[in-house]
Amino acid sequence: MLRHSHNFQNILGKTMCGIVGYIGSKPACTIIMNGLKRLEYRGYDSAGIATIENGILVISKRAGKVADLEKIINPTELTSTIGIGHTRWATHGEPNDINAHPHSDFSGNITIIHNGIIENYLAIKKKLLLDGYSFKSETDSEVLAVFIGDLYKRTKDLEKAVRLALTEIDGTFGLVVMSVYEPNTLIAARRGSPIVFGIGEDEYIIASDASAIIQHTRQVIYLEDNEMVVINREGYTTKTIDNQTTNGEIHELEFDLKSIEKGGFEHFMLKEIYEQPSTFRDAIRGRLLIEEGNVKLGGLRVVADKLRNAKRLIIIGCGTSWHSGLVGEYMIERLAQIPVEVEYASEFRYRSPIIYPDDVVIAISQSGETADTYAALREAKLKGATVLGIVNVVGSSIARETDAGVYSHAGPEIGVASTKAFTSQLAVLSLLALYLGRLKNVSSIEGKRLAEAISAIPEKIQYILDHSDSIKAIAKEYAHAQNFLYLGRGYNFPVALEGALKLKEISYIHAEGYPAAEMKHGPIALIDDNMPVVFIATKDDVYDKILSGIEEVRARKGKVIAIASEGDTQISKVASHVIYVPNTLPMLMPILSVIPLQLLSYYTAVERGCNVDMPRNLAKSVTVE
Ligand code: M6R
Fold it and tell me: Given 3.40.30.10, 3.30.565.10, 3.50.30.10, 3.40.50.10490, which CATH number is that of 467-613?
């Protein structure tokens, strides 16, 4: 989507870890601690900070949360204006104080924070052990720190030592290096793990995610793979790790601080659910040509011919993004009559997929950093496919790897459970379906009808949100259930999957989604008077069949919660609870029917006392296999 040259890597690193580095005129400690808090949503299990105080490296690190780290530091004693901080998500070595970052070299004068995985760390460690070095932690990152220290001993040049080390290592890194030898310099580098470099007034801030930067500046450089930036108080230089100067194109961050704060809501997830009328509007803004019954997608202009001639589309993604791909399949096949396959990115990347030259592969990702999706995209590219992206995070790895694409413009999504990103992906997919349909057989009249229906969606989402009181009561009634079943057909089958995923992610209730007609092939055995079954039963051409399914559940004393179309007078006679949604075209219904399910899982999780925004074991972007 963004045009850049790349050196490819096979995997992304553990970028749910967070990086913050600061050099400027203010106390670094406060800025770094605030930055780490902004990155908490990514998931982590330990945190640490290092500053240079009167020529000495002062490092504090702790297993647990940033709040635990805060307890062991005294910001009034840390007055330095240069420093680095990190939140770690353990891969090599358990989450404890010692394995937490920053890690230092043998002398304790050079320290690093590192996201990523050093694949050849054992070989390097072996050599360093033979040379007499010892190690405190079990991490690959400490090996890199000691390696840089060893190279510094030989070169007496920090930048050169970093460059030499990075050319020797296999694997991935988002890295920041700081040393008392050069106390006014920070060096950051990237391969596979994002590094964003913010340029402020008399200050620079480096982070793994722009959320930690936006408070300070909007001017950023996204480092490329194998690129580094050397920063001192007078300025900065971007270059490759082979020492070739690079352009360092400056971008403007598009979101604002408000969008990464809770704004009066109890949780980010609830705020993000309530943002959907406006995020949906943002996703379609300037893209719908209602009078022409068409769509303008500037990001796809360069691949218009490829799309027109595509014999098949393959959509790849994970989790919620995979679910939106399934809805996209139904939409595109219906409107554009192009065969669509939707695959889990994790399966696609390993099963030697058959790709024809006329295939177009579309990667869907909120974060743009999901390792499986990135690797699958690379696989498709290697096999000659045109690769497109539907990505939320601007400048992310997946966005940069695609030939073209459409940003979903949902703004930063902080809650681990994806909500607004899903409906924005559906917005883009509906536009894409209309765009492809118009390239094929869809008439301008039909196109206009659809364009009007798409443009009416935000007020319908708003209506659902404004009439959602009953959902809280339903959540309360079923919060103690052990299991939930979600059933839907056609366009609403992926919504059933998404509803079940939402519930299990944040409330830890076991939930399964099925195509409703599959119930009788197995899941019906589960139904008794303890089993809540959510039916997405909106009025479409499979409505009668859904009603039969409801009867089957009722006959076995299951409790039916139905999502139904406004004006449906029949449904309340058969369902225990009904949540009504406004009418729209069947292909757009998933955008509405998913909203009550998001709220149902949210209120259930709250009722069960769960950590809604940071559910256990989950990270916002899954950047490891
Ligand atoms: O950032 P992505 O869209 O690539 O992430 C894919 C999944 O990891 C993600 O959707 C995950 O399933 C969410 N936790 C769902 O709420």
Answer: 3.40.50.10490
